[in-house]
């Protein structure tokens, strides 16, 4: 985009802005639809083979209402009369107030069912009821003949308010009249409603439906003849109930707008948006970094930025022995060093952004407006950035760091601890000054900074105070290692060195190992480690060890007690390791075959004559040594600079991650060319 015409550049950003605004509005529209969604209705027809006998409410106008008999008829012409119908009638009379004063309830509790006559199942076809009611009393305050009211409800249903209200309003819908036979046919239906706030339905999964069953009735009336057949004495009227249809209508609510459907719509819109931009300006660049990589980098960067900001807690050392006066001196020195590091980071990373070239040969109104907007945005961003980092205070502390370089006197410490603290501050200051103030490098001080990373205070200082001081120096060293030296793993290198040289490291071979062989092996390992850490940490060079290291491994004279194959395995492994080290540190001509074996043969196979404990010990030691070489030596920045002597300087418009990826890729290419083409004839 650097060589893109200015007007086209403006059009690009205009189109970007327009499409982003449209897309955000579309997302708002989708969210609005989710919030205000009105469900649609879906009707299904379910074919049933059996239906539960419904509950029947039978209400009269006088307390002498009775069910004289109920006849249960099956679909195979079976017939069962039940006098008084006591098996299914609930005891007592129920008063529904204005809806019905004297009511009886027939309740089968789903123990009997109506069965489709076209199926092979056994079940009911019809239930008939013979009732008695005092006609004189029932007709006393009405215009019509004596009658009762009947209402069918779903069996065992816990009715909600809406269903109960409908039941009460329809309580007088079916009439059982004196000297008439009422034939009632019913069919069932269900209504499945989505409850408000149902998360499953809103997201787009199956809703947790609230099911409301319904029963629809159809009634026909037939008058008694002059001589009714087989009716109980005193019968006033008769009614029967039967299933009128075995097809159940199921009505379900369905959301038109869910979160999943909105995501799909948003994805489609995003595809159209990206396609539009690609059509106008070509495809976007690809990046191997995904959300996880970027989020990890963002989190780490945010933590680093927070530690540099004004919100990071100030020093709160809780010393047990060190006096308040000495504590103030230490805190002041730590503050100056930390803020000097922050000063370097601020000017190193941010000055370039404030010096962007906004000049152009085109002196148009649009160009001036464009530059003014960029300048205004930069000033606003810079002011916020400076406030967050408290740059005024950082500059003040940097000036104090540069001016105040006196020897620190501590009243509550002995001379030895005082000297150790001053030496440590001087080493840290020296490294910072090399990179920040461009002073000449003192090799001894610089090396001491690397390999003397633990302050061994005297026993006069409390252990808690020792730990607090060492922890703070450790934090400062990590910042310097990362941002000044470019070796964030220097602490790990030191830990590997410290575990070898400062912890009385010994090889515990078995008694089967000859003392002469044990001495040769230990000595060879120590020589290699000394050479590696002399390079990595610049530890003082021991000329005698280097002379022994430079001797060919073929001159190792193992005892006659060792198997010849084991001697050869050890000599070859030491040779491969030394060759890798020498090719990187001392420009030894590289042998591709040796390098391949070093990479592939990661475990030595000793003979059966060697003790298992010794085999494991040797393989473990070689594994530790390889880890140090692979992790710190082969990938060390100073070595990488050999393969990429010219540092690539990209423009400030390129993303930092892209710069790093390109630089790493060029380093790999140069490494292969330098090692296997220019320096080795295959």
TrEMBL record:
Top-level taxon in the UniProt lineage: Eukaryota
Keywords: Membrane, Transmembrane, Transmembrane helix
Chain ranges passing through the membrane: 12-32, 259-281
Protein name: Uncharacterized protein
């Amino acid at each position: 985009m650097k060589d893109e015409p200015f007007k086209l550049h403006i059009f690009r950003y205009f189109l970007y802005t327009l499409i982003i605004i449209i897309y955000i509005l579309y997302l708002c529209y989708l969210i609005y639809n989710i919030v205000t969604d009105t469900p649609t209705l879906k009707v299904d027809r379910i074919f049933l083979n059996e239906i539960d006998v419904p509950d029947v409410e039978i209400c009269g106008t006088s307390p002498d209402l009775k069910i004289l008999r109920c006849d249960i008829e099956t679909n195979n012409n079976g017939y069962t009369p039940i006098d008084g119908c006591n098996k299914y009638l609930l005891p007592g009379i129920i008063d529904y107030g204005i809806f019905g004063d004297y009511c009886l309830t027939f309740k089968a509790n789903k123990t009997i069912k109506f069965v489709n006559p076209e199926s092979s199942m056994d079940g009911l076809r019809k239930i008939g009821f013979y009732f008695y009611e005092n006609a004189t009393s029932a007709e006393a305050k009405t215009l019509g003949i004596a009658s009762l009211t009947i209402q069918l409800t779903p069996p065992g249903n816990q009715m909600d308010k809406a269903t109960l209200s409908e039941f009460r309003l329809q309580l007088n819908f079916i009439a059982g009249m004196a000297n008439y036979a009422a034939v009632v046919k019913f069919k069932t239906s269900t209504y499945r409603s989505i409850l408000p706030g149902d998360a499953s339905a809103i997201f787009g999964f199956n809703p947790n439906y609230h099911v409301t069953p319904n029963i629809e009735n159809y009634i026909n009336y037939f008058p008694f003849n002059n001589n009714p057949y087989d009716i109980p004495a005193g019968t006033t009227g008769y009614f029967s109930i039967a299933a009128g249809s075995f097809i159940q209508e199921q009505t379900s609510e369905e959301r038109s707008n869910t979160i999943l459907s909105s995501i799909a719509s948003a994805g489609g819109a995003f595809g159209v948006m990206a396609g539009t931009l690609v059509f106008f300006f070509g495809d976007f660049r690809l990046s191997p970094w995904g959300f996880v990589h970027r989020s990890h980098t963002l989190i780490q960067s945010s933590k680093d930025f927070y530690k540099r900001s004004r919100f990071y807690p100030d020093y709160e050392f809780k010393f047990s022995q060190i006096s308040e006066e000495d504590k103030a001196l230490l805190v002041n020195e730590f503050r100056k060093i930390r803020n000097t590091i922050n000063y370097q980071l601020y000017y190193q990373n941010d000055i370039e952004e404030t010096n962007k070239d906004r000049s152009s040969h085109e002196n148009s109104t649009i160009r001036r407006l464009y530059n003014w907007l960029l300048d205004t945005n930069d000033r606003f961003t810079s002011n916020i950035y400076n406030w967050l980092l408290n740059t005024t205070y950082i500059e003040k502390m940097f000036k104090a760091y540069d001016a105040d370089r006196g020897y620190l006197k501590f009243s509550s410490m002995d001379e030895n601890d005082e000297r150790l603290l001053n030496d440590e501050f001087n080493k840290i200051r020296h490294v910072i000054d090399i990179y920040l103030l461009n002073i000449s490098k003192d090799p001894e001080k610089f090396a001491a900074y690397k390999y003397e990373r633990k302050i061994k205070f005297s026993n006069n200082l409390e252990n808690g105070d020792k730990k607090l001081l060492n922890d703070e120096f450790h934090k400062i060293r990590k910042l310097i290692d990362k941002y000044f030296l470019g070796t964030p793993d220097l602490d790990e290198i030191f830990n590997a060195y410290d575990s070898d040289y400062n912890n009385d490291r010994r090889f515990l071979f078995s008694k089967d190992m000859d003392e002469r062989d044990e001495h040769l092996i230990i000595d060879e390992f120590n020589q290699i480690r000394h050479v590696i850490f002399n390079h990595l940490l610049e530890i003082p060079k021991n000329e005698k060890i280097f002379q022994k290291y430079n001797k060919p491994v073929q001159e190792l004279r193992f005892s006659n007690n060792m198997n010849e194959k084991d001697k050869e395995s050890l000599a070859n492994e030491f040779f491969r390791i030394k060759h890798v080290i020498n090719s990187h540190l001392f420009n030894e001509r590289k042998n591709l075959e040796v390098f391949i074996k070093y990479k592939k043969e990661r475990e030595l196979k000793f003979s059966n004559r060697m003790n298992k404990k010794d085999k494991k010990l040797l393989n473990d030691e070689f594994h530790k040594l390889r880890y140090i070489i692979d992790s710190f030596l082969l990938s060390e920045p100073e070595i990488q600079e050999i393969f990429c002597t010219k540092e690539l300087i990209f423009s400030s418009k390129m993303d930092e991650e892209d710069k790093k990826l390109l630089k790493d890729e060029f380093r790999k290419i140069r490494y292969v060319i330098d090692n296997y083409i220019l320096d080795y004839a295959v």
